[in-house]
Amino acid sequence: MNTDKHGWVVLGVLCVFAVFSFVTACDARRPEQNVVTVVATPTNDPTPVVIIIPTDTPAPSPTPMPPIRQLTAGGCCVQPFWSPDSQQVMFIDRPAPDAPVGIYAVDVGEPSGQAFLALDVLGLYSRDLSLVAYPAGRETFVEELGSGERWVIPNQGQAVVFSPDNKRVAWEIEDIDGPFDQRRSDIYLARYTGEDAVRVTTVYGGGLNGWLDERRLLFSGRPSLDVRERTLTALDLTTNVAVDLVTAERIAGVTPSPGGEWVAYFISFDEDSARNAIWVQRTDGSDARRLDFWGAYQWRDGTRLLYIPMRESPDEPFVIWEYDTASGRSRRVTDPAAAPIQIANGDWKVSPDGRYVVYVDSADRNLWLAELQP
Fold it and tell me: How far apart are CA 318 and CA 344, in angstroms?
């Protein structure tokens, strides 16, 4: 594999597939036993009753992991992300002058695991890690890691987003001149081999937000320069039916849930102050809900949103909460007394299985792991 391929900043969808887990060793030897002979109430022919009492001590249970623990040392690293099986935290690094630049990983199951080189190609990976996209010169290549075969994507060297089933890629080509809210963005779609490329839509002052599922794209922007407000839209590529989810002048923080059933976003500086908030909404256009907090957020799974409210004092630890779209209720999933979390620059990422959060500690700039309440 070519170790000189580099260019784009690796997004949160980068993953690695190695799996490590604890194995508790068992002693196969038969334990020693005490034999006690007990004679019951006397009879003419008393028959002894033999009771065998094991004397071995049961093996102790593994020591539980603390609610937060350090994963890396030396101020390493930023922008961590997860392997698809939630067993490894990954990051871009060059741990020594003679070490290659690449994607390194640390096993979360090891109390003091050492980072190792997991992938030597910097790029954007498909969900199953069978494909990687990277720039070379002014072109974008998609490479199949197993065979080494690669294809040119006709997108002028732009970054691509793989569909969840890895069969297609989407990208945008944005004008580079003029005010942002007037810049034209053309959104395209093609097979992962670059074939059958087609322009899907054009927006102004917006662009592609990603895939909802294998057949739906999410994008936002002004439909024309004559329109002031932007619209967040879900487009079904099989039926060509577009569903407008919300319209406002300033929509940001667009984050679809795994599986694409829900989307979170926030509206700011709206003339109607009641709209200035974080919202969650079904992607069929229904059930928009205004949330009563302000802060950072990520989806824990298809229906639960993790969020970190703003603190009253910078000396207070961060507390992670969870909003459940099924019940409409919130609950705390970290205890600030047991897990005094301090996050630098909003750099945190929930694991795919929803069990952990990895974050960059604001004090030592290392990666730390926090276990969430189930």
Answer: 11
What stretch of H or E contains 93? Answer: strand 88-93
How many angstroms separate the Cα of 201 from the Cα of each of 50, 198, 204, 233? 84, 9, 10, 11
**pTM, to two decimals:** 0.82
Banded model confidence at residue 32, pLDDT cuts 50, 70, 90: very low
Collect all residues with Cβ–Cβ distance below 8 Å to 294 and sequence separation of at least 6.
277, 278, 309, 310
Residue tagged 């038969």 (tokens):
30
- pLDDT tens per residue, range 61-94: 455 567 999 999 999 999 999 999 999 999 999 9
Q: Give dist(CA 99, CA 67) in Å, integer.
A: 32
Fill in the DSSP letter of residue 31: P
CB atoms within 10 A of CB 11: 14
Strands 184-191 and 198-211: antiparallel
